[in-house]
Design a protein that fits this description.
It is a single chain. With about 375 residues, the protein is of the alpha/beta class. It folds into two domains: about 120 residues, Alpha-Beta Complex (Aspartate Aminotransferase, domain 1); about 220 residues, Type I PLP-dependent aspartate aminotransferase-like (Major domain) (Aspartate Aminotransferase, domain 2, 3-Layer(aba) Sandwich). The strands form three sheets. It has a seven-stranded mixed beta sheet, with helices on both faces. Strand 12 and strand 13 form a beta hairpin. Helix 4 runs parallel beside helix 10. Bound molecules: pyridoxal-5'-phosphate (PLP). Pyridoxal-5'-phosphate binds next to helix 5.
Length: about 375
């Protein structure tokens, strides 16, 4: 059998996630490793979410509510928006896929800052779209450069705020300038996967702009601050008209029943959310202090992870840390061949990371 695969599909480099702990144990026999590679919650899931899942287990023979009604209503109340403006997804990854599938045709241009979250480019290309790559300036998204890249074929712009992997933000002023300067038929997709961790008051919050009046989609996830990455649940906020289109192309049961009840419970667990945010901020302050003491170059961040300049091959440092049981992310695939990205863990994990990094860098 000889399948004909379009070039735009065959040329996509598969997304490489952070190395799972089980995989490391299988490959190297290293147990008791720590994973600081996927910007997950260092605490675990919310206990309220676990209880909600336990109660829902006996209904697993039923299909989920395909509309996710209870979760949608809960989110709409919390965000003071119309429930019709919310589309749930199997992680926010799913919403990126649904959006591009619904709106991007072969040859359409989509502006993708780089480096940023790799799934934007993958999803655009999987529809035959053209990613117009706009390089970051000083590790931050430059709105003027984005505006300069707009052509009549541009259909969509991705903004990751804060940006993965740099932790930089788009300010409210720059975001408003972008919206005011763009043609109204270009959709701005603002990915706020890490917004809960932001401390800088200048950061844009896209939900402050009415998506009924502006061509904006906000992406949010339960995978990071809410600690539910394994369940796969996220959502998009947009105009009701656009949501209606996305509902036509999404899978009918794209969020599972356990994820729905867990997300509802997690939204009520304010104590857990605050504990997570406090732990991330304390961990970041510890990283800043320790990396400065050790003379290791690093960059300020508004997310739950940070970039560190290891001044040598990031892949080599990644491997050496791996053999010490510390999983981070080499940024080579993100065009930073000498940077690693590490997310905040529990205090003991943070200490182990700093000690391991110092010993790897001192010995090289
Ligand atoms: C910026 C950004 N957006 C989206 C995602 C995907 O999140 P989800 O788990 O909701 O699919 C990630 C995951 O790392 C991310 O970093």
């Amino acid at each position: 059998m000889k399948l004909s695969i379009p070039d735009y599909i065959a040329s996509i480099a598969p997304y490489k996630p952070g190395k799972p702990l089980d995989e490391l144990a299988r490959e190297t026999g290293i147990t008791h490793a720590i994973k600081l590679a996927s910007n997950e919650n260092p605490i675990g899931p919310s206990p309220a979410a676990i209880t909600a899942i336990q109660h829902a287990l006996t209904d697993l023979h039923r299909y989920p509510d395909g509309s996710g009604h209870a979760l949608v209503v809960k989110l709409a109340n919390k965000l003071s928006i119309d429930p019709g403006q919310i589309v749930l997804g199997n992680g926010s990854d799913d919403i990126i896929g649904i959006l591009t599938r619904a709106l991007i045709r072969p040859g359409d241009e989509v502006i993708v800052p780089s480096p940023s979250f790799l799934m934007y480019d993958i999803m655009v290309r999987s529809c035959g779209g053209v990613s117009v790559v706009v390089p970051l300036k000083d590790r931050a998204i430059c709105i003027d450069d984005i505006l300069a890249a707009v052509t009549p074929r541009c259909k969509m712009i991705f903004l990751c705020n804060p940006n993965n992997p740099t932790g930089s933000i788009v300010s409210k002023t720059h975001f408003e300038k972008l919206l005011a300067s763009l043609p109204r038929d270009i959709l701005v997709v603002v990915d706020e996967a890490y917004i809960e961790f932001v401390r800088d008051p200048a950061c844009a919050r896209s939900l402050a702009c009415d998506a009924e009046k502006n061509p904006i989609v906000t992406l949010r996830t339960f995978s990071k601050a809410y600690g539910l990455a394994g369940l796969r649940i996220g959502y998009g906020v947009m105009s009701k008209d656009l949501a209606d289109i996305l509902h036509r192309v999404r899978q009918p049961f794209n969020t599972n029943s356990l994820a729905q009840v867990a997300a509802i419970a997690a939204l009520d667990d304010d104590r857990f959310l605050q504990k997570t945010i406090d732990m991330v901020h304390e961990g970041l302050d510890y990283f800043y202090a320790e990396l400065t003491r050790a003379g290791i170059a690093h960059f300020p961040t508004q997310a739950n992870f940070m970039l560190i300049n290891v001044g040598q091959s990031a892949d080599a440092v990644f491997e050496k840390l791996l053999h010490k049981g510390v999983i981070v992310r080499s940024m080579r695939a993100y065009s930073y061949p000498e940077y690693i990205r590490v997310n905040v863990g529990q205090p003991r994990e943070n200490q182990r990371f700093i000690q391991s990094l110092e010993s790897v860098l001192l010995r090289s």
